[in-house]
User: Fold Serine protease from Enterococcus rivorum.
Amino acid sequence: MVWLKKMMVLTALGTFTGVTLQSSVVMAESLQIESRKVIGEDDRFRISDTSKQPYSSIAYLQIYTSTSNYSRGTAFVVGKDTLVTAGHVIKNVSSELLAKSFVAPGKNNDKEPFGRFEIEKMILHDNYSPNKDHDLAVIKVKPNKNGQSIGDVVPLLSIADNASVTIGSKAIIPGYPTDRRKELWSGDGEIKSQGTYRFRYDVDTIGGNSGGPIFDTNNQVIGVHTTYHTWNGIATENSGLKLTGSNYNFIAKYLDHSTELNDVQAPSQVTGINAKNVTSSSLMLSWEAATDNRGISKYELYVDGKKTATTALTKIEFNRLVANKTYSFAIVAVDDAGNQSQISESYSVTTLPENVEEKPEKPSSWVSTQVYTSGDVVSYQGQEYRAKWWTRNEKPGSADVWQKISSGIDKWQAVIAYTGGNIVEHEGTFYKAKWWTKGEIPGKANVWIKQ
Assistant:
């Protein structure tokens, strides 16, 4: 009996517009397999740099359904020669046409930075049925023209045998949608509910996403996107499969247990260490993310040769430091299997003398399309906010993810004279003065413009 480590890699392929499958209907709800629904406003965004992880391991899929027609989909790499997809993606695809079919990891329109890989064979889950709990398939690909396997040119994506997901947490789904050119697009949203093998979310998807990886905010694969749900013809939620039980075991069966389930490759060495906001007693240390074939689990921080802290982020704040003292910092990256990188080169920084403080850098303005992680500080409407966890397109001041930490704008006072361009706060709203004013109430006088 072969012992399987409960950590592995998953690949999934996207929905094909050329495959027609019957949907199931329960009462007024319809569980569809085309994965074509944008829920409300379209919040998807393009991934412009597909050479970075985890995007380089997500592949464009092209399968021919006849000698002249092909269908498009999405895939992500799980083993040296292995990918995984939703079963309905490959259902009814002729084996005679596989020689023309291929996957291209990290494809970005006409650019294929990691080349193409021809498909050798495709295997459906033993209990496969469209829209059901085991809508999975494995794809095996041939080496490229240089004799390299797909797992030799791009990292493998890591998954865990997780029986549960966290309701209310973020789900992120990148893929190659058919309503865009051959480009990688992504959407994110909230996990709404879950069953034994499936879970639902409000992430926008469309044809081409089915079979794509579902990530959490740590770039950990937590599922495979497969379907969408409608109620009386209106899109309500999309859904995917959990990688647990027979779904996990099905994928594990087609991987090399000696190398793909037992990771022995160490992460890259940490570089780019830098200190900001240095004071007499504190500083913020940041660094470039290390790379790994499975994924980074944590970073271990060493101060003057002694391990003092651990974090999953690429930055950490040190407090209670001694004034006017030089500290030496070094970092070790650790992957999901416990493999450690070489310790980084030492980085030294001296705290300021007592009573001499460096003015903190002014935070950048909040941008709706930018991703922020725990600890990031932004300014919005004259106030500063710190992110509690991963967030994107959630407005500071109105979303729980943001914690108000300061206000750079004073409250309006009737006894103070203001000149054009001055900004004040009055009854929770910000106003800008058009010209000189004194005693004129913001919100009532024309001299003030609401911000």
